[in-house]
Every structure is written in C-alpha cells, then in structure tokens.
Amino acid sequence: MRYEKAQNILPNSIIEQIQKYIDGGYIYIPRKDENKKAWGENTDTKKQLGTRDNEIFYKYSSGISVKILAEQYFLTESSIRRIIRNKRKYG
C-alpha cells in the first residue's frame, strides 16, 4: 500500500468534506469487498508453504520425529504438530 496525495486524486469539494472530520491526518480507505484478495493471492507464498507442509507431513509419516523436523525447518515443535494435525484433518 502506498500513500496518494488527496489533492492529486480527489476533487476539492470532497477534500473539504474530509477535512471537517480529519484535518491534516492520515486516513485509510479500505478496498471494496469485491476487490479484496485472499492472503497469498499476489505471491506464491501460499503455494510454497503448502509444498513445505506436504514435505513435513511426508517426512513425519516416514518416521522422522517432530523434534528433527522442527530443527530442519526452523520451526517450533508445536508448529510442526499443528501442520501434521492439519494435514491429517484436511489432507
């Protein structure tokens, strides 16, 4: 998200109305619901984490301990257990 100068994009009449409520401060204008994107939609982070989680579950199923997996993936043991639990539950 980047800042835009109001005077560059809004008519003076709207700026004057906004100034009645917040004069010289910052205001966040949220996206319309139909323009919102899900987490990870702009990057492939979600895909990469899914691949990592599949690897963790496969290795765990092959007999590698939670402790070793936590060390290999630089995660806490509770995070590894959560990933395993979610993979069992949702696949």
Automatic annotation (TrEMBL):
Gene3D superfamilies reported for this sequence: Homeodomain-like (1.10.10.60)
Domain of life: Bacteria
Classification via SUPFAM superfamilies: Homeodomain-like (SSF46689)
Ranges of residues in domain Mor transcription activator: 10-89
PANTHER family tied to this protein: MU-LIKE PROPHAGE FLUMU PROTEIN C (PTHR37812:SF1)
Name of the protein described by the UniProt record: Mor transcription activator domain-containing protein
Organism in which the protein naturally occurs: Clostridium fungisolvens
Biological classification of the source: Bacteria, Bacillati, Bacillota, Clostridia, Eubacteriales
